[in-house]
TrEMBL record, chain A:
Reactions listed under catalytic activity: a ubiquinone + NADH + 5 H(+)(in) = a ubiquinol + NAD(+) + 4 H(+)(out)
Membrane topology: Multi-pass membrane protein
Domain NADH dehydrogenase subunit 5 C-terminal: 509-680
Domain NADH:quinone oxidoreductase/Mrp antiporter transmembrane: 133-431
GO molecular function: NADH dehydrogenase (ubiquinone) activity; NADH dehydrogenase activity
Cell compartments where the protein resides: Endomembrane system; Membrane
Annotated Basic and acidic residues bias: 470-479, 489-501
Protein's recorded name: NADH-ubiquinone oxidoreductase chain 5
Biological source species: Pelagerythrobacter rhizovicinus
GO biological process entries: ATP synthesis coupled electron transport; electron transport coupled proton transport
Domain of life: Bacteria
InterPro entries, per database record: NADH_DH_su5_C, NADHpl_OxRdtase_5_subgr, ND/Mrp_TM, NU5C-like, Proton_antipo_N
PANTHER family in alphabetical order: NADH-UBIQUINONE OXIDOREDUCTASE CHAIN 5
Region (Disordered): 466-505
Automatic annotation (TrEMBL), chain B:
Topology in membrane: Multi-pass membrane protein
Documented EC number(s): 1.6.5.11
PANTHER family for the chain: NADH-UBIQUINONE OXIDOREDUCTASE CHAIN 4
Domain NADH:quinone oxidoreductase/Mrp antiporter transmembrane: from-to ranges: 125-409
Protein name: NADH-quinone oxidoreductase subunit M
Species of the source: Pelagerythrobacter rhizovicinus
GO biological process, one term: ATP synthesis coupled electron transport
Pfam families: Oxidored_q5_N, Proton_antipo_M
Family the entry assigns: Belongs to the complex I subunit 4 family.
Localization, UniProt: Endomembrane system; Membrane
Regions that span the bilayer: 6-24, 31-51, 71-96, 108-125, 131-149, 161-180, 200-218, 230-253, 265-288, 295-316, 322-344, 365-386, 398-422, 442-460
Domain NADH:ubiquinone oxidoreductase chain 4 N-terminal: 67-119
Length: 686, 519
């Protein structure tokens, strides 16, 4: 069972070779190498997962190398394989392999392909290190490693100022979370004298009544530790408050959004909470926070998703919202359900992103849905793939048949279990989740209708104009004009009158096979992943083994919720669909009227609840202001003025008086030395 | 080593080479300097390989009494070993980095070689007065390097550098004389075991503090550093950041902590307070810098503050972390200054805005710069992380507030370093001359490659660096334990909760029955 070593380190090897070889290696070699490595990893991962699924595999740890040993603090490089890891392995390697393949087509015209593929493989390595971690510090290694890869990939088109800003923002905001994670590790070490995850989990219940000091307060040990660690999870998984980087991260190429900012990296927070679930179960306050933040995020992000025009931003907010579901599922104790949603979401969200990428590809880098429309017939394969993704995310299925698309199984389970939990917070989460499900259905169908139905509105798009006027054959503009803040409508032209049909004479083209094959495979995942794996993830304690805290009684209660609860998700899904149909197919004047009527509310939501503005005002601007003050007024104005410059002044004055006797540097040193001596002696005598 | 005086040889080789450099022409001086530093590097490797981990605390000792109880005594423990290895590792790189020096090359090389003698001497000295001589004499070559081969404002910078560091050392000398008088010996290992009266420790500690705080440098006596760095030639900056700043930390770990444990505990809030101020203030200042070298200089002050909190955490993790931060910072900030030097040699400006988009025309340079940027902000897998993590893990056991404030450095550090990286390597090529700069030459590869390898080595397998000092740190920790302040985070046991937080009501079977009924 040493295949795990290959699974983890092949992508690293490929990344190093492709990255260092770069242009000397050539596009094809670099691409083949990285993609090949990922397909091998993927092929090796599935048997491990299937082994756990049919109960033949056992959890084990493969040691690699001693890392740090300092006093009693010691941790190793080691790869842990258990059910939870196996689930993540297949998710990561499958999506990554498909995204690698997809990028052959999507990035075909980019001059910097080896670098891109090296980053993708590097990311995969870091993510695999994260999920195979046997101690908290290696998890942190993976945690920051994926952060680095995310930074590099968001900023891949590094000529664009907006891409650089987004990349730095992603890294820095994540670091805020990482600060919490780090403090959590320190606290955990202080309490348990170890960073080994199995040892911590075993000892956690015994510590549940104890207290530790933190920032001058004396608090419940487990609550403090879990909240600190959860702050890390909030950063990585873009939960309310630390979410602001995720929508901006859409500056990266779309395959990156699919892999990192939908299927894998952003789910690391959920994975962490599930990995540490026995620990979180000893911390009721922390779990309450997880539930509340998750529920609030799923609602908050969904509201924003309904107003955005950029196709990728809609899906980004959708991701943020779906992660909220996973968190509150974990918060109420249904870690299996959280992981199940993580699993299904990885497939259908990657599908939606890659589908969006295919649309963007077809529309010559136009991302604004206001300039789409009627694409159904032009790119039918992409359309059907997106359709499957939409059916999956909105949770279409028939309760009585126990059959539906992926999201039907996982999201419905989360809503039911939140209700079944019976606490106030659980019920709050249920209602938030239900409203968010309505909004999810609305914005998903809105996306579909705006993109694939209606009449072509392409003529007004700058990108399309550019394509039509300059032809397709000229070298691709690889740093498309910065996607201005979606509010700036002025950047787009008014439709030119000569093309009455709105197409501007442009012909969208279906994507190449390298892009369609991943779409096809992910479509299968979006359709079947829920139905096939529902039993194992939700109802089978033997499947999970000891890898998560499995709350059997809660799962039984989940199945016992009233019928109306079970049907809630389906009902709100239909309502959302109806709303979207009404507003974007039946009578397209409704959205405009609504915006006019409720402009205050719309602005608030459209401006993303003003989080960015707020943070800019209270963090970013003051940081630079204080920096300048400390520098100009502190260092220069105060310390230097009364320190060395002042001393020099005194010495200069003094030497003028004694000019006839001596001159030169040596004299000043002697004087200073004398002053020092006097000061020292005075001090001693006092 | 069979009595072979390797430490003396390591002092002698650069000393003789330095004298020789004074009398030969430029080209020969370069060759001599490179050869001498490479020989010292080889000797350093021999030293490391022959260092007996778990053996006696002081190894490779040499002793020759001179006069009045003062003797020529050398010897190293693991802590000194690592810092000597760092010094001899950086020296050949500095010689390579001095390619663009054309003025008075012989004297320049001599200054560097004398600098090397004094650096090794500081870490190897076992006699208090010998240490003092090496410690203070180290100022002179650096003063000359800045003052003669520096930038436009070099006189002011050299003066500021000298004034600051001298002021502290006067006080230290007085304290040393008092100590020798009190303990009746100048032998450092003996003094490290000597229990000075608690009352006297206070002012002795302050006198040493005055010197080490400036060397470190700690806020608010740090303002000489940005000027010195900005004006110093590239290799001067590398040695300044790489080794000279480490002398302050070495001083704390060799003198202040073991000799005055009670006073160290007494002044713990002074150190913590200044360190917290340094992390926040200098990080914010680094954020608004327009000059590359100034930015890295300010970041050095912030990193050194992590060293001081680690040292004054009074536990093994803090001490070892502080040592690793010192080694790591020596490599990383040295490498960052080299990176600045590489492009300064091409464009002759340190102004950040004159660059941009270098990842396009200098991809290999951009890759190295990225690695060192990441090491500087403590990305796991690089040396920066191991040190920072251990230091902060140490201070957490002492005080959580201090940890929180100092850990904000990881956020601010990411901010200013990535902002720098954006303006240098990313973005569009704003200036034609910057866009035309060629990528790394072989010479530059030879400078940056070894440091990159060392940074990754220390990040992935720091055991190589932790093992030699483990025993010395444990001994120091044991000596400090009597004075260590109690942490605010300590655990108080309680009655464990009976069931999981999400345990639902009803027994297993009842829940099952309900579920059956509902279906």
């Amino acid at each position: 069972m040493q295949s795990i070593l290959l699974i983890v380190f092949l992508p690293l090897l490929a990344a190093v070779v492709a990255g260092l070889g770069n242009r000397a290696l050539g596009n094809t070699v670099a691409k083949s190498l990285t993609t090949g490595a990922l397909f091998i990893s993927c092929a090796l991962s599935w048997p491990i997962f299937l082994g756990f699924l049919n109960g033949t595999a056992e959890a084990h740890v493969v040691p690699v190398l001693l890392w740090v040993q300092s006093g009693t603090l010691s941790f190793d490089w080691a790869l842990r394989v258990d059910t939870l890891t196996a689930v993540m392995l297949v998710v990561i390697t499958s999506v990554s392999a498909l995204v690698h393949l997809y990028s052959w087509g999507y990035m075909d015209e980019d001059p910097d392909q080896p670098r891109f593929f090296a980053y993708l493989s590097l990311f995969t390595f870091a993510m695999l290190m994260l999920v195979t971690a046997d101690n908290l510090v290696q998890m942190f290694f993976g945690w920051e490693g994926v952060g680095l890869a995310s930074y590099l990939l968001i900023g891949f088109w590094f000529k664009k100022p907006s891409a650089n800003k987004a990349a730095i923002k992603a890294f820095v905001v994540n670091r805020v979370g990482d600060l919490g994670f780090m403090l959590g590790i320190f606290g955990t070490f202080l309490v348990f004298q170890t960073t080994s995850i199995p040892e911590i989990l075993a000892a956690a219940p015994g510590m549940s009544g104890s207290s530790v000091g933190f920032l001058g307060m004396r608090l419940q040990t487990m609550d403090v530790l879990c909240i600190l660690l959860f702050i890390g999870a909030m950063g990585k998984s873009a939960q309310l408050g630390l979410h602001t980087w995720l929508p901006d991260a859409m500056e990266g190429p779309t395959p990156v959004s699919a892999l990192i900012h939908a299927a894998t990296m952003v789910t690391a927070g959920v994975f962490m909470v599930c990995r540490l679930s026995p620990m979180f179960e000893t911390a009721p306050v922390a779990l309450g926070m997880v539930t509340f933040i998750g529920a609030a995020t799923c609602f908050f992000a969904a509201t924003i998703g309904t107003t955005q025009w950029d196709i990728k931003r809609v899906i980004a907010y959708s991701t943020c919202s779906q992660l909220g579901y996973m968190f509150f599922a974990a918060g109420v104790g249904a870690y299996g359900a959280a992981m199940f949603h993580l699993f299904t979401h990885a497939f259908f969200k990657a599908l939606l992103f890659l589908g969006a990428g295919s649309v963007i590809h077809a529309m010559h880098h136009e991302q604004d849905m206001r300039y789409y429309g009627a694409l159904r017939k032009h790119i039918p394969f992409t359309f059907w793939a997106m359709m499957a993704g939409t059916l999956a995310i909105t949770g279409v299925g028939v309760y009585w048949l126990h059959a539906g698309f992926a999201g039907f199984h996982s999201k419905d389970a989360i809503l039911e279990v939140a209700f079944a939990r019976g606490t106030e917070l659980g019920t709050f989460a249920f209602w938030m989740g239900a409203i968010a499900a309505l909004l999810t259905s609305f914005y998903s169908w809105r996306l579909m209708f705006l993109t694939f139905w209606g009449k072509p509105r392409w003529a007004a798009s700058e990108h399309i104009q550019h394509a039509v006027h300059h032809g397709h054959d000229e070298p691709e503009e690889h740093n498309p004009p910065a996607q201005e803040d979606a509010g700036d409508e002025a950047v787009h032209h008014v439709p030119s009158p000569e093309h009455g049909d709105g197409t501007a004479g442009y012909h969208p083209h279906e994507s190449p096979l390298t892009m369609l094959v991943p779409l096809g495979l992910l479509t299968l995942g979006a359709i079947f992943a829920g139905w096939v794996f529902s039993h194992a993830f939700l109802d089978d304690p033997a499947f999970w083994g000891d890898s998560i805290f499995y709350n059997e009684a809660l799962i039984h209660q989940m199945h016992a919720v009233p019928l109306w609860v079970k049907l809630t998700a389906t009902i709100v899904m239909l309502l959302g669909l109806f709303g979207a149909w009404l507003a974007y197919i039946r009578d397209t004047s409704i959205p405009g009227k609504f915006v006019e009527q409720f402009s205050l509310l719309h602005n608030f939501v459209y401006r993303k609840w003003y989080f960015d503005e707020l943070y800019d005002l209270i963090f970013v601007k003051p940081a630079f202001w204080f920096g300048r003050q400390f520098w100009k007024r502190g260092d220069v104005g105060l310390i230097d003025r009364f320190g060395p410059d002042g001393a020099a002044w005194v010495v200069a004055k003094g030497s003028v008086a004694a000019k006839k006797m001596q001159s030169g540097y040596l004299y000043s040193y002697a004087l200073v030395m004398l002053l020092g001596l006097v000061a020292a002696v005075t001090w001693v005598l006092m | 080593m069979g009595g072979f005086p390797i430490l003396s040889v390591m002092l002698l080789v650069p000393l003789l080479a330095g004298v020789a450099c004074l009398f030969v022409e430029a080209k020969a001086a370069r060759t001599i300097a490179l050869a001498a530093t490479l020989i010292d590097l080889a000797l350093g490797v021999v030293l490391w390989l022959n260092f007996d981990i778990g053996g006696p605390q002081w190894q490779f000792t040499e002793r020759a009494p001179l006069f009045a109880g003062f003797s020529y005594a050398l010897g190293i423990d693991g802590i000194a070993l690592l810092l000597i290895v760092l010094s001899v590792f950086l020296m050949p790189i500095c010689i390579l980095a001095s390619h663009s020096i054309e003025k008075r090359v012989g004297e320049y090389m001599a200054a560097f070689l004398f600098m090397e003698v004094l650096m090794i001497g500081v870490f190897a000295a076992q006699d208090l007065l010998l240490f003092y001589i090496f410690f203070e004499a180290g100022l002179i070559p650096m003063y000359l390097i800045i003052g003669i081969w520096g930038g436009q404002n070099r006189i002011y910078a050299a003066y500021k550098f000298f004034l600051y560091t001298l002021l502290g050392s006067v006080l230290m000398l007085i304290a040393m004389l008092w100590m020798v008088n009190e303990a009746g010996t100048t032998d450092i290992p003996t003094l490290m075991q000597y229990d000075f009266p608690v009352g006297a420790q206070t002012w002795l500690w302050l006198a040493f503090f005055a010197s080490f705080a400036v060397k470190m440098p700690m806020w608010p006596v740090h303002t000489w550093l940005p000027d010195a760095h900005v004006q110093a030639p590239t290799a001067g900056s590398v040695i300044l950041a790489g080794v000279l700043l480490k002398m302050g930390g070495y001083g704390f770990i060799r003198f202040s902590l073991p000799m005055f444990p009670e006073a160290s505990a007494q002044f713990v809030w002074l150190i913590w307070g200044l360190s917290m101020a340094a992390v926040v203030i200098t990080s914010l200042i680094a954020l608004v810098q327009q000059d590359m070298k100034k930015l890295i200089a300010y970041s050095s002050v912030a990193h050194m503050a992590i060293v001081t909190v680690g040292l004054f955490a009074f536990n093994v993790q803090g001490l070892e972390g502080a040592m690793i931060v010192m080694l790591s910072h020596g490599l990383v900030s040295g490498a960052l200054f080299l990176c600045v030097g590489v492009i300064y040699d091409r464009l002759h400006t340190r102004e950040i805005d004159r660059y941009g988009g270098l990842a396009i025309n200098m991809p290999k340079y951009a890759l190295f710069f990225l690695l060192f940027t990441m090491a500087s902000i403590g990305l796991p897998g690089t040396s920066g992380f191991v040190g920072e993590f251990l230091s902060l893990a140490g201070i957490y056991q002492a005080n959580t507030w201090v940890t929180l404030v100092c850990a904000t450095g990881i956020i601010l550090g990411a901010g200013y370093m990535l902002y720098l990286y954006w303006r240098i390597a990313f973005g569009v090529q704003r200036n034609a001359d910057a866009a035309a700069m060629p990528d790394l030459s072989l010479r530059e590869w030879l400078m940056l490659g070894p440091i990159a390898a060392a940074v990754l080595w220390m990040g992935v397998y720091p055991e190589s660096f932790l093992a030699p000092m483990r025993q010395d740190i444990a001994a120091l920790d044991a000596r400090l334990s009597r004075a260590a302040p109690e942490g605010d985070a300590h655990l108080v046991a309680g009655t464990p909760r009976a069931e999981a937080a999400n345990a639902v009501e009803g027994t297993h079977d009842a829940a099952h029955g309900e579920a059956e009924g509902a279906h």
